[in-house]
Design brief:
Radius of gyration: 30 Å
Strand content: 25-35%
CATH topology of the largest domain: Immunoglobulin-like
Distance between the termini: 103 Å
CATH class of the largest domain: Mainly Beta
Length: about 200
């Protein structure tokens, strides 16, 4: 019996190529899934701290008084986990009929007691940077932790947002963000009456 040239070798090669192709597809699929899972794991953020309770206050001077020592925002950590001050950013938005301006307090804690240009983004004039009395970021503690009993404090500049009755500002929105988790740990909207 004579065999046609190449007939016997073709049948032996096809299964081998099929096995190699299947192995290559399995390797590529495993690498793709692994890259997806590892990439997803890198995007997982640190969990937000549990700041169980906070209180906020916005002190505004009456219409007939100088607002220089007023328009002070105080946010007190009452209960829950401590938060590193360097892990928070504070967004402040002043809103009124002809006003919509925003500033962010960043790179905290401020050096010493004073907030300066490096601690501000957005409208840098919205937050008072004077030192009389000092507008502080953390008071009552120098551990650079915002913990139960500590108060974040800053003053709104009346030249950019005047909250006295009959003036240009109606609402002040304050939001504290825990930057590693991108979670809001405090948010409130204050009105000139302190509400």
């Amino acid at each position: 019996m004579t065999q046609k040239p190449g007939l016997g070798t073709e049948r032996g090669v096809s299964p081998a190529i099929a096995v190699l192709l299947m192995a290559a597809v399995a390797i590529i699929l495993a690498a793709s899934i692994g890259a997806f899972v590892l990439g997803f794991g890198e995007e997982t953020r640190e969990p937000a701290p549990n700041v169980a309770e906070t209180t906020g206050e916005f002190a505004v001077a009456p219409a007939d008084e100088n607002a220089g020592d007023n328009q002070i925002v105080r946010i007190t950590h009452v209960a829950g986990e401590s938060v590193s001050v360097e892990d928070i950013e504070i967004t402040i938005t002043a809103i009124g009929p002809s006003l919509d301006t925003e500033a962010r307090l960043v790179d905290l804690p401020a050096e010493g007691d004073s907030i300066d240009e490096k601690n501000l983004e957005g409208n840098k004039d919205l937050i008072d940077k004077s030192n009389d009395p000092p507008p502080r970021v953390i008071i009552d503690d120098d551990s650079n932790l915002w913990t139960a009993g500590d108060t974040i404090e800053f003053r709104i500049n009346t030249g950019d947002a005047d909250f006295r009755p009959g003036a240009d500002a109606d609402e002040l929105e304050v939001r504290i963000v825990h930057t590693p988790s991108n979670a809001i740990i405090f948010e409130d909207t204050f009105t000139p009456s302190g509400g």
